Amino acid sequence: MKPKAIIKITIDILMTLALLFLMGYQFWSDVLHEWAGTAMFLLFLLHHMLNANWYKSLFKNKYTPMRIFQLIVDVSVFLTMLGLMVSGIMLSNHVFDFLPIRGHMGFARLLHMASSYWGFVLMSLHLGLHWNMFLAITRKTLKLRKSSRLQKIVLTVAGVAIAIYGTVRFFQKELLTYMLLKTHFVFFDFNESVLLFYLDYLAMMGGFIFIAHYIGLLLRKLPERKTRKKAV
After folding, report:
1. For the chain (length 232 residues), average pLDDT per consecutive 10?
2. Helix locations, the chain, DSSP H
3. Taking the model in full, what pTM does it have?
């Protein structure tokens, strides 16, 4: 594997871990939360610098249903990350406290809350749309053989189970309420186990990855079907 590809994958993994860490705000100090957010900000910048060709290709080639969906997700991720960074800097009491930014705390808090939960969902969808690439790289790196039919069935059943559990927990934890700003406060359960909290968030992330992966498979087939109809 090329060094640049390894760096890209490493950055994506670190961003995912940082995102999960940041979702557990109630378990860690404000200082750790701010430094983790700053690290994610830097990783996000590196991610875009290493994928500069994406911008150059925006106005090239035909836009298929899959490409349109990817673009919507990617632009939405960019906007939520921008919202997180701006609101995070405005709310900072430690890392960016030296900046002469005061006021509009109510707006910053709401922007940070909405951007956090939208960012979590959208980044999970983004990962799902590139899941085949991650699997291919993992197989190549670990020198794994191609999965047998039985293994594929077991992995699919496990994926469905995780997606169902993650979806149930998504609604039980009322993340949609925070995303749509139906409340202006996030209610934390300080008695919740750290391990169970992160397992729930991994399941929710897995659910959105699963959904995006199969939406992607469906959208990739749409142009082929149209072509076949024309040929007939």
Report:
1. 77 90 93 94 90 82 90 94 93 90 86 95 92 75 71 86 94 94 88 94 94 92 57 44
2. 3-23, 30-50, 53-56, 65-91, 105-129, 131-142, 149-172, 175-179, 194-231
3. 0.87
